[in-house]
């Protein structure tokens, strides 16, 4: 079960990084996210 959960978390992380990475700096700024913070935000979203 842990392997499946880890794989699912990794997929969610990658999807979040990809989606945020496609946003413009202005869109990210509107959300209060700096481009350099994308990975940290993605990690936090998986840790919930």
TrEMBL record:
Taxonomy, superkingdom: Bacteria
Pfam families linked to this entry: YjiS-like (PF06568)
Positions of the YjiS-like domain: 3-39
Protein name per the record: Uncharacterized protein YjiS (DUF1127 family)
Organism: Rhizobium metallidurans
């Amino acid at each position: 079960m842990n392997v499946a959960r880890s794989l699912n978390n990794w997929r969610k992380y990658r999807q979040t990084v990809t989606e945020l990475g496609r946003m413009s700096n202005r869109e990210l700024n509107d959300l209060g996210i700096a481009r350099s913070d994308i990975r940290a935000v993605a990690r936090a979203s998986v840790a919930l």
